[in-house]
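Hello Y.,

Per our agreement to keep a running log of every chain we model this quarter, I'm adding this entry. I've kept the format consistent with earlier entries: sequence first, then predicted structure.
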Amino acid sequence: MKRTLTILSAALLLTGFTSCSKYLDTLPLNDVVLENYWTEKKDVESVLNSCYESLENRESILRMAVWGELRSENIIAGSSVNSNDLLDALKETLLPSSALTSWSVFYQTINRCNTVIHYAPGVQEIDPNYTVTELQATIAEATFIRDLCYFYLLRTFASVPIVFEASISDDADFEVAPTPAFVMQNGKWEIGPAFDILINDLKGVEEMAVRRYVDDSNMSNSLAATAATENSGRVTRYAIYALLAELNLWKGDFDETIRYCDLIIDAKKKQYEEKKNNLGEINDMMLFNDIPLIRECVDGGTRCGNAQTEIFGTGNSFESIFELYFRVGQSSSNDYVYTYYGNTSNTLGRFATPEENRKDVIIGNNTLFSKDDCRAYGMMDNKTNRVSITKYAASSVSMSNRLSTLTDESTAGITISRRSNSYANWIIYRLTDIMLMKAEALAFKGEEYFEQAFKLVDAVNRRARNITTVGGAGALKLSDYNSSMTKMIEDLILQERKRDLMFEGKRWYDLVRYSIRTGNNSYLSKQATTKYQINVNAIQIRLSNPYTLFWPINKNELKLNRNLTQNPAYGDTEDFQK
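Predicted structure for the entry above:
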C-alpha cells in the first residue's frame, strides 16, 4: 500500500475532518459524497493512509513526546524555548488554556480510523479485488492506530471520551461522557474500565493483522532498513502485541504482559535465525542472554555506536516493532526532532537535558551512566554550556570501543553527524522497550522472578556497554538488586528504562505508572525535581498531589462537552473554569 493520497480522498478529508466547534473537532461527512466515494479497495487504502499521516502530523508527535517526557527530569529548556506553553510545562505551572492540552489532533485521527472501520466492510462486499483477508488487515491497522491514540490520551488525562463510532451524520452525539482509565478511591488511583475496553478491542483484531509485509529473511539489516520499511512503518500483529503488553502492564495484569512480550521476543528470535540460516553469521548482531540485539561494535570492529546509528539514525532497524516512517521528499516531516532537538546550524535545540546526565561519564563519576555506556556519548552532546540532545537528531554516531579504559573524551573519538533534513523516524515500540516491560512485569510478580527480570535488563545494559560475555568486567550483578522489589524496580528496571528510552516520550509515563502501582508519588516527585534549581520544595509538594500525575483538561474542551470535569489539581481561578 503506497503512503499517498488521491485528489479525491484529499478532498474528502478536507470536507470530513476539518476543525470545527463541536466536541470531536470533526464535521459530519456528506452522505452523498460518502456513498459515491466508498466503492473500491483504493478508496479504503487512501483513507487508511490518511490515518497514518494524521498520526505523523507535527502536532501529534509533539504531544507524544511532550506529554510523555517534558515533565520528567530528562528535559530542560534549551536555547530558544519561545513558547509560554512549553515553559509552563517545564516549570510545572500548567494551565488549561495551554495549547499543549488540546487533544483535537488525536480525535481527528481517531475519527478517520472509525470511518475506515465503518465503511471498509461495505467496500469488500462490492469490490471483488478487496478480499476478506485484506479487509481484516485494514480493520486491524485502523483499530491499532485508534487505540494507540486513546492510550496516549488516557495516560495523559486519566479519563477521556471513548468513541468507536464514526462521526458521519448530523445527529452524532458530540457530548460523550468520559471513560476513566483511573478512578480515585480513598486518596489513591485505582484502575478504571478504559484499559479493558481497549484491550478487548485489540484482542478482537490481533490475529487479523499482517505479520510481515515484506520477506526480509534474505536481507542484511542495512538492506532491510530501506527495502522492507513497511515491516516497521505499518501496523503488524507484533505492533498490536506491543500495545496489548503495555496496556496490560498499566492494568497490572502481569501474566498477560509477559505473554504478549514473549510473542514479540520469540518472533524476533525466529527472524534472527532465518537471517543466519540464509546469510550466515551476522556481524552487526548477536545474542544477549538468548535475545538477538544489534551490536554497538560490529564483530571485528574497533568503533562503537552501530546500534544507535541503525536504530535512530537509519531507522526501520531489526529491533523496530512500530515507528512512524518519514522519507525525504514526502509532504510531512518530523519537525519535532528537527526543530526541538537542534540541527546542523544550532547545536542546542529548544530542549536540552540536565548537565548531570552527561557530566563526568568518561571518568566513571556519573550516577546514571557507566563510563563504557555508549548511549551517554551518542544521544547527548556536551560541547555547549547545556547538554544538547542528539538522539534522533543524529544520522550516525561513533566512538572508541575502549571506553572502559579511557579517562579523557578527547581520546574517545566521539563523532556525531547531525541530520541535514527533518525526516527522522519516530519510534513507538522497539525490542528493548518490550524486554524492559517484561522485566517490570516479572519483578512485580515476586522474588522468585527476580532472576528472570535481571537477565532481561542485563541484556539491554550489556549491549549498550559493548560487554559481549555474560558476567563480563563491570557488568551488572543480580546481588546488587535482589534484596527487595523496590531495588529491583526503582534501582534496576526503571533506571535502565530511563537510560535506554531517554528522550523517546516514555519517562513521565513510566513515573506515573509506578506511582499508581505503589499508591504514592514519592519516587516520581524525587526523580522529576532533580532538574530544578529553584522552587524545588514547592514543586515537590505540588507533585505529591496524586491528581498532578495528569494534565489539565483544555479549557475549550470543557466548554464543548458538559460531561467533562476539570482535574482538581488545577485550581479554581477563572482560567480553570468552564
